[in-house]
User: What shape does this take?
Amino acid sequence: MTRIDQLSAIEILDSRGRPTVKASIKFKSGARASASVPSGASTGAAEAIELRDGDSNRYGGLGCRKAVANVNGEIARRLIFCEIPDQSSLDHILIELDGTPNKSRLGANAILAVSIAFARAKAIEDGAELHEHFSTMIGERAYIPSTASPASATSSIHPSSFILHSSPPPAPTLPRLTINLFSGGRHAGGQVEFQDLLLVPLSATIDEGLAVVDNVYRSAEKLIARKYNMRSLKADEGGLAPPFPSVQRMMEDAAEALGEAGYVLGREVALAVDVASSQFYRDGLYHWGSPAKTSAEMIDGIVELAGRFHIVSVEDALAEEDWANWPALRAKLKAINVLTLGDDFLCTNPGRIQRAIDAQAADALLLKVNQIGTLTQAAQACRLAKSAGWRVTVSARSGETEDDWLADLAVGWSADQIKVGSVRQSERLAKYNRLLEIEKETRWGVVGWPGIGIGQ
Assistant: This one.
């Protein structure tokens, strides 16, 4: 049992200069830790709700003083001097204390900051690396659950949800990098419809993959200076954001930058794309190019691009509520060995994930912990996706901090991919640097990508 003796929070600023929450916790054992939470720009309608102040005279209404006050007040009063057996029990208490289906009363930003700070302090208390603690929590390693009763029988979260009943897990691996090169959509002012074009280095190590991406990024900087007569203006996640005349030109420029860096597209580097199509879906049509496209036309356009440009993963190719057409998208992408990845479509929400599994509407989950609001629920989403044979990409958000817990989460939960952003901003580099540390300490290899020729 772990007793919480101190709990507090402050408002800090994320990578876009917008407020977010940092929570600090101290146990009776003396273990103490802090955690900062991110915030997204392209958000799904089903995401847990960040609590913002709404005061237009302060940070345009985006202040987090209310969320901070909830940690320092109601949440602290409930948790201080409490004996907490494990993470699921802690999250169970937080969910019940909030009492809403989307964490809108206390704020998902307040709840998640406490959830992650607890996990980090528990790892310290147990003398474990954070990724080791995360792995035991989700059942990727041997785990014996607590026999303590949950805080209430009415919550959907129960410690028994973490018991591993399957055969021994495979050898541990590190996630494969997917790194922003070019950005559009809400991350870059909408100069082109698609939100991100990402590089997938086919290297055997994190160290080699980062070096390859840096070479391509520098080549792309020279290319856009030559083609668009512009300096290296970067979007929220550090992707380059020149005024591409079309999505196709963005793809062609990526292939050209790869070639000029000395690489062959599809051999040393593949591509992935975040379409974020809900942002340009209106009145039943996708406003990509001219004329606007039906769902069937959108699918055909995506499949054509994927085949032409060695794209191995397509994220949110259809709008989040275009459920009727996602199965056809998955079927056509699966036929050419491309992952159908759900972000806004799934929102790391077990209910939506199960619906997509039943409909065969996707085969990969983009896991963002703040979309659901606690580690426990995110772990449930991860295990549900894996149980269906899906791939899992652990993802950062457009508004990040220099906290590096996400890297440990991706390793501990055996993610297939990690999506953090570019290689040019410190809040992104903090996660990559942590991956380099873990790689050096463990000497684990980068995960393969079965069925699509990566890492085989």
In short: The two ends are 44 Å apart (CA to CA).
